[in-house]
TrEMBL record:
Domain Gfo/Idh/MocA-like oxidoreductase N-terminal: start-end pairs: 4-126
InterPro entries: Gfo/Idh/MocA-like_OxRdtase_N, Gfo/Idh/MocA_domain, GFO_IDH_MocA-like_dom, Glc-Fru_OxRdtase_bac, NAD(P)-bd_dom_sf
Keywords per UniProt: Oxidoreductase
Ribonucleoprotein in keyword set: no
First and last residue of the signal peptide: none
Family: Belongs to the Gfo/Idh/MocA family.
Lineage per the UniProt record: Bacteria, Thermotogati, Deinococcota, Deinococci, Deinococcales
Positions of the GFO/IDH/MocA-like oxidoreductase domain: 137-256
Annotated protein name in UniProt: Glucose-fructose oxidoreductase
Length: 344
């Protein structure tokens, strides 16, 4: 029996990526949609073999209570709405997969974790790159010692946002600018490959005058994370430059480069060590389908997902500190115990 998902929000990600991906998943299927765009919902339902009764409005969300075939709800809405729907899902006893960023800030995200914990439902943050073989190979290269002692890392994720009306450029809906949307991949992946938490943060941002896109959020942001042992990582994110996504790790004996690092398909990893350069290849796998399957298996087995809500909280802790540093011009130290372990 496949685990049933209700998808909430039928925007670009749902239509172009999630619905096609779930059709190739082994353990999951979609059994309902929740949207204000009824026509779009009905058309999508028909396309996947569902009926009119499987499409709900946002106001009707609580009617999912009676749907025994809905095991989990997948929240794919603008960031400001994540918390409301995670809490509503928890209240009706449904497990929740929530898109990144988990919330609007660390406090918002912590409240979401608490709501799910007290309701006894699982919460997973949809960090697709942590379900990608190239990213695991990068992490393994760091942990196996193949690169020697790691000294420096850098990561870039930029893309152009050219619609001044986009919700991503409205602080009240997005919570921040490119940092919380695409820069979050740099923060999350740096933490993931190192398996460590930063101890301090330093950052600067640019918000140009006279560009209607950047009235509320930054255009570009540069940040530095200090990890234990003097290891330094740099990150760059922007909505002003053509799509680029990279991760580089520099060690005493070798280095690795992922370029591109964060696309849906076509991540490319190359490793350079004393033996020369190697570009490993991996069987193709769909990141979204992996996420659907992973969470489905966790639900069946009653086990914690690999990227739980706490993982989403931790990136917010770091991103809140990045914005604080950019605002104050000061290094922000993260308290001991504020790391991932504090939530485990
Ligand atoms: P989108 O703008 O394409 O879709 C947003 C959906 O929310 C639409 O169906 C819209 O009708 C609905 N909506 C409800 N209330 C709204 C409101 N007040 N304003 C605007 N839309 C409203 O967005 P998207 O690209 O699908 O992003 C949705 C979520 O998914 C975001 O949290 C985003 O960060 C995340 N996302 C993740 C990835 C990934 O690779 N994991 C990629 C893209 C988006």
């Amino acid at each position: 029996q496949r685990v049933g998902y209700a998808i909430v929000g039928l925007g670009q990600l749902t239509v172009d990526e999630l619905v096609p991906a779930v059709r190739t998943s082994e353990h999951a299927h979609v059994v309902a949609f929740v949207t204000s765009e009824t026509e779009k919902g009905l058309a999508l339902a028909r396309a996947v073999g569902l009926g009119e009764d499987d499409v709900y409005t946002y106001d009707d969300f609580e009617q999912l209570t009676g749907r025994k075939d809905v095991d989990a709800v997948y929240i794919v809405l603008p960031n400001a709405l994540h918390r409301e729907y995670v809490e509503r899902a928890a209240k009706i006893g449904k497990h929740v997969l929530c898109e990144k960023p988990l919330g609007m800030n660390a406090d918002d995200a912590r409240a979401m974790v608490e709501a799910c914990n007290s309701a006894g439902v699982l919460l997973m943050t949809a960090y697709r790159c942590q379900y990608t073989p190239e990213h695991w190979a990068a992490r393994d290269a760091v942990h196996s010692g193949k690169l020697g002692k790691v000294k420096l890392l850098d990561s870039i994720h930029v893309q152009v946002e050219d619609d001044p009306e986009a919700w991503r450029l409205k602080k009240e809906l997005a919570g921040g600018g490119p940092l919380v949307d695409v820069g979050i991949y740099c923060v999350n992946t740096l933490r993931f490959v190192l398996g460590q938490e930063p101890q301090w943060v330093f950052a600067a941002l640019h918000q140009p005058d006279g560009d209607p896109r950047f009235v509320e959020v930054e255009e570009s942001l540069s940040f530095m994370l200090g990890f234990p042992g003097g290891l330094i990582a740099n990150g760059l994110t922007s909505y002003g430059a053509r799509t680029t996504s990279t991760l580089r790790v520099l060690g005493e004996k070798g280095s690795l480069l992922m370029d591109p690092a964060f696309p849906y398909v076509g991540v490319r990893l190359s490793l350079t060590d004393e033996q020369g350069e190697l570009t490993p290849s991996f069987p193709s796998s769909d990141q979204f389908s992996q996420e659907f399957d992973h969470f489905a298996q966790c639900i069946r087995e009653g086990r914690r997902p690999w990227t739980p809500g706490e993982e989403g909280v931790q990136d917010h802790v770091v991103m809140d500190a990045i914005y604080e540093s950019a605002r104050t011009g000061q290094v922000v130290r993260l308290k001991t115990g504020q790391g991932k372990d504090a939530f485990r």
